[in-house]
Amino acid sequence: MNKTITERVNTYPTKYKEGFTPSEIDELLKEYPNINMKKFNDSMMCHTGSIIDGEFVVYHCDVELALKCSVKKK
């Protein structure tokens, strides 16, 4: 079953309930081979997050928006 971006982001097993660590974002991006990385990175320039145990954590909603802005249409 193919999940929507929203479903995948919201059900991804993140280390912290608040959001994604950089390594988790990298792993998630592997699931989207048609992503436009320039658009993804541009979208992530103005994101929010927090620092937990010394790691920057990006909120789910910001990862979701960046993915939606950068997945290439077939």
Task: Describe the secondary-structure layout.
Layout: H1 5-11, E1 19-20, H2 22-29, H3 37-43, E2 49-52, E3 55-59, H4 60-70
Antiparallel strand pairs: 1-3, 2-3
Sum this structure up briefly.
The protein has 74 residues and is an alpha+beta fold. It has one domain. The chain has four helices and three strands.
Description:
This protein has 74 residues and is α+β, with helices and mostly antiparallel strands. It has one domain. It contains four helices and three strands; from the N terminus they run αβααββα. The chain has helices at 5-11, 22-29, 37-43, 60-70, and strands at 19-20, 49-52, 55-59. It has a three-stranded antiparallel β-sheet. A hairpin with a 2-residue loop joins strand 2 (49-52) and strand 3. Helix 1 packs antiparallel against helix 4 and helix 3 (37-43) packs antiparallel against helix 4. The two termini are 18 Å apart. The mean pLDDT is 90.
Keywords:
4 helices; globular; alpha+beta; three-stranded antiparallel beta sheet; 15% strand; single chain; 74 residues
